[in-house]
Specification:
Layout: H1 7-18, E1 64-67, H2 69-72, H3 80-92, H4 95-98, E2 102-104, H5 130-140, E3 144-150, H6 168-178, E4 182-186, H7 195-209, E5 214-217, E6 235-237, H8 246-256, E7 268-270, H9 283-295, E8 300-302, H10 311-317, H11 320-326, E9 335-338, E10 343-349, E11 355-361, E12 367-372, E13 384-388, E14 393-397, E15 400-405, E16 410-416, E17 428-433, E18 437-439, E19 444-452, E20 458-466, E21 472-475, E22 480-484, E23 489-497, E24 505-516, E25 522-534, E26 541-542, E27 551-553, E28 560-561, E29 576-578, E30 581-583, E31 586-590, E32 593-598, E33 605-612, E34 621-628, E35 631-640, E36 646-651, E37 657-664, E38 673-682
Parallel strand pairs: 1-2, 1-8, 2-3, 3-4, 4-5, 5-6, 6-7, 18-25
Antiparallel strand pairs: 9-10, 10-11, 11-16, 12-15, 13-14, 13-16, 17-19, 19-23, 20-22, 20-24, 21-23, 24-25, 26-38, 27-32, 28-31, 29-30, 31-38, 32-37, 33-36, 33-38, 34-35, 34-37
Length: about 675
């Protein structure tokens, strides 16, 4: 079945159809590369500043604006009223003042056929007054208009709107006459013509109009445009299309990060448009999305319908301190400092000599992520200023840069060797040792920490921990300290009890600390934590599909119990089938997938028959892994759809948490529908 929310599938199929390679049935899942990455990705060798494009001044910083595709696709609500409404909101909501300039039309703005003179015709139902009228409206707001076409005979939508291949000069002339300021040039139906030739021809056609037009090369990274497009366009897509899911966003981050050496003023890596506000991720994940795009110096093109956006969405999109990281005129893309265990440190050099530092937690549980000033490229100094760009607070640090980061969260900081560091209170780190897994009715001891990272002492330190109503939370050791010097910690044991009968699930804990700076300034901090109320599996044999899960991440739709993954909707799977064998029990997933459940040290073995589900015909390559308390206990290697089910067995004796992980087989996650067939847990 077709995956309608992603155009990557349509693009690749359309390209292959043009070359006579694929039949027109059975479109695949989103074509994204595997999220797996080495502990410290190695960037390719390249000159730091490739030869600039002729009109570098059009995009000295990454373009910012809006594109309708992620929120409307080709649906009827994409029309002139929407475009003009977005322009109005840019002004009314302060987005224009924050730096957003381009209001861009994506596919479906034209009629399927050109006129008798070979000219493009705007759809009169969507744009009754034409494109120029919309451009004039947008320009009157002090904004710019963008438009879309493809470097092929047709665009990417299945309706088959006209592409620009063979019409480059006449189409570019029309765009210029309409007042277009930005062109997104896609890659569908390209008839096998060399990519460099196609994109250079449109560059020349745009130049011939005499109108300054930002040129966005949407080639999906298939021909490594970062190696040749810096003299052709102002930005180039490095990946397939994003979708509104954690797995998709994470996969794209891992593909784009190693390309940092190719980015700079006038020539930007483009990891695709923003999904912030579209509903497929949590607020925490959307803040990570926005933070990572900014530290990667990526174009910031809003992909949600701002007419329906929540205050939380506007808060993310309008964070001017985060935007300043993206728009820094030095134009460096952030580079990976470390990434072990899903604890990512990404540092971006800024024009003023400071560093933007993203502490990004890829994992499904809170983790401490730490680095130091020298590791992120700052010079030696007695102390540094540290600015939290989401909390909008400034501190001093002796050099350590650290935080406990929630699952899928990002702490974004700006750190500088600043002689005025002493004017700010010391940075204090709050943490909690271990993962709070609590069996209802049974007390557990958690250890909270408050650590002075600053060069100056923290005085009159106090700490508290609170939980849900009805829970018992009592300190088992000191909750205050007269003073903490640099590197010193206040460690407090807490006895936490969830009432008997508390249902399994996630519950909020909050660790709070207060202290005074040497100047007497009162400072408070909070750390939001998640406690999981858990139940041990019963003795004997259990099926993972019958157990409560601590977390479940899936690359396409939800994890399905006792059926295949199916498509994006819940409950749309089919009988689990691998190599023609049908299984009644198990889990249907899609790479990248990670399902974790509590075993409480009471289980010994996990077994399953694993493989690529038959619902994707001959497509799909995956690898299965079983993890026990952070250690890999078993793995299959790469399996393809042509292989029968393979038995996997793992010894999980003593483990408190077991994870069932499916990764990509090395060729992207297209059609990677994987089955944990007849999965069993022995306790």
């Amino acid at each position: 079945m077709r995956h309608p929310h992603t155009r990557t599938t349509r693009r690749r199929v359309a390209t292959a159809l043009a070359a006579g390679l694929l039949c027109a049935t059975g479109l695949a899942a989103p074509a994204l590369a595997a999220p797996a990455a080495p502990a410290a990705p190695t960037a390719p060798t390249a000159p730091h500043s490739p030869a600039p494009a002729p009109s570098d001044d059009l995009a000295p910083t990454p373009p910012m604006g809006f594109n309708n595709w992620n929120s409307t696709h080709c649906r009827p609500e994409f029309d002139a009223a929407m475009v003009e409404g977005i322009a109005d909101l840019f002004v009314a909501k302060g987005l224009k003042d924050a730096g957003y300039r381009y209001v861009n039309l994506d596919d479906c703005w034209a009629l399927p056929d050109r006129d008798a003179n070979g000219r493009l015709v705007p759809d009169p139902a969507r744009f009754p007054d034409g494109i120029k009228a919309v451009a004039d409206y947008v320009h009157a707001k002090g904004l710019k208009l963008g438009i879309y076409t493809s470097a092929g005979t047709k665009t990417c939508d299945s309706a088959g709107f006209p592409g620009a291949l063979g019409h480059e000069y006449s189409d570019a002339r029309q765009f210029a006459d309409w007042g277009v300021d930005y062109l997104k040039y896609d890659n569908c139906n390209n008839q096998g013509v060399d990519a460099r030739q196609r994109y250079r021809t449109m560059r020349d056609a745009l130049d011939a109009t005499g109108r300054p037009i930002v040129y966005s090369i949407c080639e999906w990274g298939e021909n490594k445009p970062w190696e040749w497009a810096s003299g052709v366009g102002h930005l180039w897509r490095t990946t397939g299309d994003i979708s509104d899911s954690w797995s998709s966003m994470l996969s794209i981050v891992k593909q784009n990060l190693p390309l940092a050496p190719y980015a700079g003023p006038g020539h930007w890596n483009d990891p695709d448009m923003l999904e912030v506000g579209n509903g497929g991720m949590t607020d925490t994940e959307y803040r990570s999305h926005f933070s990572l795009w900014s530290v990667m110096a990526a174009p910031l093109l809003i992909g949600t319908d701002l007419r329906k956006a929540s205050p939380a969405t506007y808060e993310v999109l309008g964070n001017t301190e985060v935007i300043a990281v993206d728009q820094d005129p030095l134009g460096r893309q952030g580079t990976v400092v470390s990434s072990a265990g899903g604890r990512w440190v990404v540092a971006k050099e800024m024009q003023d000599g400071s560093r933007a530092v993203a502490l990004f937690n890829e994992s499904g549980a809170a983790q401490r992520i730490a680095t130091d000033a020298r590791a992120v490229g700052l010079p030696g100094a007695g102390a540094y200023t540290l600015r939290d760009l989401w909390r909008h607070r400034t501190y001093n640090t002796a050099g350590t840069i650290a935080a406990t980061v929630p699952a899928h969260g990002t702490v974004l900081l700006r750190v500088a060797a600043d002689p005025r560091w002493a004017a700010h209170p010391p940075a204090v780190e709050l943490g909690l040792d271990g993962t709070p897994l609590i069996e209802a009715g049974a007390p557990v001891t958690l250890t909270g920490t408050v650590t002075d990272l600053g060069r100056t002492p923290a005085r009159r330190v106090s700490v508290s921990l609170t939980g849900p109503g009805g829970w018992t939370v009592r300190p088992a050791s000191a909750t205050s300290a007269a003073v903490l010097t640099t590197g010193a910690s206040l460690r407090t044991g807490w006895r936490v009890t969830a009432p008997a009968g508390t249902p399994p699930g996630s519950y909020d804990l909050t660790l709070r600390a207060g202290y005074r700076s040497p100047a007497g300034q009162r400072v408070t901090g909070t750390l939001a934590l998640t406690a999981s109320v858990v139940v041990r599996p019963p003795a004997g044999t259990s099926y993972p599909g019958d157990l409560p899960w601590l977390s479940a991440v899936n690359g396409w739709g939800p994890v399905e119990r006792d059926t295949s993954n199916g498509e994006s909707a819940a409950g749309d799977g089919r009988p689990l089938t691998v190599g023609g064998t049908v299984y009644a029990r198990g889990l249907g997933v899609h790479a990248f997938s990670d399902v974790s459940f509590y075993t409480g040290g009471a289980c010994e073995k996990v077994t399953a028959d694993v493989g690529v589900d038959d619902e994707k015909d001959t497509r799909g390559t995956v690898a299965f892994e079983i993890w026990a308390d952070g250690a890999k206990a078993a793995a299959t290697g790469v399996l393809t759809n042509a292989m029968p089910a393979r038995r996997i067995t793992a010894d999980v004796t003593g483990a408190r948490v077991v994870r069932l992980v499916v990764t990509d087989g090395g060729d992207g996650i297209d059609s990677d529908h994987a089955d944990w067939a007849d999965a069993r847990l022995t306790c």
